[in-house]
Amino acid sequence: MKRLVILGGGESGVGTAILGKKKGYDIFVSDKGKIAKKYKEVLLNNKIEFEENNHTESKILNADVVMKSPGIPDKVDLIQKLKKNSISVISEIEFAAQFTDATIVGITGSNGKTTTTLLTYHILKNANFNVGVAGNIGDSFAQQVAEQDFDNYVLELSSFQLDGIQDFAPHIAVITNITPDHLDRYEYDFNNYIASKFRITKNQKTTDYLIYDADDEAINNWLKKNKTKAKLIPFSIERELEFGAFIRKNNIIININKDIFNMPLSTLTIKGKHNTKNAMAATMTAQLLKARRQVIKESLEDFEGAEHRLEQVAKVKGVEYINDSKATNINATFYALECMDKTTVWIVGGVDKGNDYNDLLPLVREKVKAIVCLGVDNEKIKNTFGNVVDIIVETVGAEEAVKVSHKLAERGETVLLSPACASFDLFKNYEDRGIQFKNAVKNL
């Protein structure tokens, strides 16, 4: 009996444990912290051995294979020891993929991957595909492979999940864009992070597809220097392409399988340049899987978008409140500010992942009248924008940030929460930050 050790008792860990048990592995789950009640109940009900608040090395180093949660960096001692002992350390995605024959769409990128994943899933579901959505969102991929019988999966994949793959190969891979993010996990070298994203295509065959942003410098540079067997399918909003997706006269034009797909930009429910790109990627994916054109169009017209991503919360006294808590890096916030067409009070701050705020200066100069800081350390924000914005206020909670913004914003203006930072200094995660923001707005 093969021994499967799982590090991390969260969504991916517990899902892997359920699948591993079904496939006859001897299983041990180990979490350095506390395991949440709902996950502990699943482990107990399934009679799976586990420990919390500790890693017992003797019970871990005897593994045949280790699945580690994406939150654990490769550089921690325990992972290094496993690798020295030649024990394979993989991600949930790698483990689960070997037990399904389903067609897999894998979507990665620094920004836009959640929206693209949800939109692709929305189209396929409307087209009556038997499809599951997993990866970075929803129920764990492994648990769905164990308990469901889906013919297709749409997976949102982070670079950390891709770091743990060996043989995983999606039939269709999508790279939405690559901008500096999580550099603290990649020796502060952008090239390491780029290489990590491109692992999505490393095992693809000539019958597979790689859909990518042809306007993205990092992606283009990688493709010039490296080879993939997959068929390349580009999208662009900056120039017309002979093959792929582009814009002509305010219409999305897609030319991939001899029949031209054409749709007015104005009919898309999700707005902004980045969402046009997300829609292109999702549409081409659905076309490659032979979804009906009419269904694709209708789905693009009624898609509601991801929670915590440019989500319209409410209008209070003529002021629009927008929750973009999922913007945990500079590029995501760049998109959000770019979409603002009214004078904006911008709530920003949190745990900085090595941010360079200078890219935002032109947008802030043009659109932002006041900055409300929502983080423990705001020095960098104050230093960057102090000369550009007259009002910068520091707050230490969502409720206070909303109250201050409410005082500063006037009728016809917008309050935008788009933090450009991680949330762990004041919140459990970006969802918690977004929910607290929305509750504070509702209590105004």
Automatic annotation (TrEMBL):
Pfam families assigned to the protein according to its UniProt record, in alphabetical order: Mur_ligase_C, Mur_ligase_M, MurD_N
InterPro entries associated with the record: Mur-like_cat_sf, Mur_ligase_C, Mur_ligase_C_dom_sf, Mur_ligase_cen, MurD
HAMAP family xref list: MurD
Chain's gene name: murD
Class of enzymatic activity (EC top level): ligase
One of the record's GO cellular component terms: cytoplasm
Protein family according to the UniProt entry: Belongs to the MurCDEF family.
Chain sites annotated for binding ATP: 109-115
GO molecular function, one term: UDP-N-acetylmuramoylalanine-D-glutamate ligase activity
Name this protein carries in UniProt: UDP-N-acetylmuramoylalanine--D-glutamate ligase
UniProt pathway annotation: Cell wall biogenesis; peptidoglycan biosynthesis
Function summary: Cell wall formation. Catalyzes the addition of glutamate to the nucleotide precursor UDP-N-acetylmuramoyl-L-alanine (UMA).
E.C. numbers: 6.3.2.9
GO biological process, one term: cell division
Localisation per UniProt entry: Cytoplasm
The organism's place on the tree of life at top rank: Bacteria
All residue ranges annotated as the Mur ligase central domain in the record: 107-285
